[in-house]
Fold each of these.
Amino acid sequence: MSTRYRMYGWHLSYFAGKVRSYLKYKRVPLDDVDVNLFVLMWLGKRKTGVVAMPLLQTPDDIWMQDSSETWQFIESRFKDRPILPTSPRQRFVSLWLEAWGDEWWIPIAMQTRWRHSENYPLFEHDAGNALLPGWPGFLQRRAVARIARRLRGYLPAVGVRPEQDELLMAWTRRMLGLLEAHFTEHAFLLGGRPSLADFSLMGTMYGHLGRDPWPARELIAPHPHLRSWIDRMADLPNSLDETSESAWLANDELPVTLMPILRTTFEEFGAQVAGIAAQVSALAAHWPMDKRLPRILEDVAIPLQEGTFRRAAMPYTLWMAQRAVDAITTLPESSALDMRRWLVDVGGEALLSIDAPRLERDGLQARFSSATRNRGTAHAT
Ligand SMILES: N[C@@H](CCC(=O)N[C@@H](CS)C(=O)NCC(=O)O)C(=O)O
């Protein structure tokens, strides 16, 4: 039996960027292969229930698709180089920034890719060769066009709408400035060593912002420390200097330069999560408890410094946020109290009063968890 793991994913893909960087860091024996049309549309769907990438196949032929499920599984088998800190604050921040990196940044990645036609030749080339390797160009191009149509179809729901383009770019430039300031001081988000938060942010930064020609030139090149972080993350562990300060900050501290970023996530992503929670709660009154929730609901209005941004609520995002909040609510009482005080200081206390039914993941979507189902429409606190 082979002892190697196999990841199916493209360099173009958001979540493959996250998972690939992580698996390399963990030194998982890995075959990193492209997804072809057959694996994407048929085999992967049969094994995991959804058409999505990346997919991971283990040597013992277990298949998985969700990036969070994937790292949790790998952490249980590969104990070296854990990516989730054990101290309460850093642990919560890692999980919260995972949710932010995975969910918040999707519109930015999609806008920068699909609003600029100069990105399409790379997409067509890479996706064409991956989907139908060795086939005639015109068939490859046709297959790519179908995938591109499907992906472009998601733009309005995630908030990429012409009237919001400027707003989102202004936000992006502000945030990239904050990230640049941070990476000028620190090699990774929590200090000298990568954590779950870094891998998640690689989703946006590797395949989309750092590799598509327009954003790589216009948005990333002006930020050299951010550029170096992307390149470092793409080549772990080789780019990690084990002898220097390769640790998260001591005493559960967080880098000062991370704080403005974190505050922004609480204000903005926190508002998005609260908006989704309100819609999911309202749905719980009449939605059949055993039926998967819709992938998208109504719009949520999110206040940014630059204006109000609207995108459709996705229950899946709430599921991810609930996992982060769990890192606080499951703490022993005295540490939970300390964490609550800290959240008040950094503007994140509203997260603790989000009252919504407990969710679990179902493929790319979410459903009420079995605990919620057993309690009728009872809410998690
Ligand atoms: N949240 C999932 C999402 C996986 C995902 O959305 N992958 C994208 C490509 S980067 C995809 O295949 N999307 C297909 C679709 O949404 O229909 C994860 O963490 O793995």
Amino acid sequence: MTSTETLTPKKRVSQARTFPVVEIFGPVLQGEGRMIGAQTLFVRFGYCDYKCRWCDSLYAVTPEVVHEHAERLTVDEIAARLRALNPHTPWVTLSGGNPAIHDLAALVERLHAEGRKIAVETQGTVFREWLRACEVITVSPKPPSSGMMTNYIQLDRFAALPNANLKVVVFDEADYAYARDIHLRYPHVPFYLQVGNPVGEDDTATLLAKLDWLGSLALADPAMGGAIVLPQLHVLLYGNRRGV
Ligand code: SF4
């Protein structure tokens, strides 16, 4: 803000508002979905409306943990932390938890003003208008092995976004059948199949064997001809560590 800029009451409120940020890190190579291999900074927001059995980010989900460990940061503070990490990295990924729980409209506006492009990772349960302004929305509905139920009314709204892509993590054959149903329901949306890996089972040989298994299923399935099959690149590179 320049010294001559006048703040409207609405802008003053949005600048004072804080968000629970569990971690800010990067730049790293994005490990998943449509953005795989892209150089990005990450902001991980606390809290989630799901609690998946195999969640690898429970430190951003469990309310008591988030309440104790998350920093409450304003838009200005988040933008400053990102600049300090790297002012030139083109992408910022907003992740969680479920970042769509929060009203991030002011943050999106700020990051765009600073020349960043924005990718969002969400399971597609809470629709927000600010999502329309982001460049890439990776929507990751959760398969049966997660223990969660899919909200198809919300998912329909996400799938109608021109900037959306769908990604399903697959741990077993029931998950694969779910992924197949999702792809058939939204054939116009770019679709990514990704190998699931429980924390602690992230050695390279196991990950590649699972990728081979998932790829074989898709290759033999005419309905999945348009699906792109990916490993979790970040797990291959860094393991299931935090902050990468
Ligand atoms: S939706 Fe994502 S962050 Fe939330 S519990 Fe499931 S895996 Fe974890």
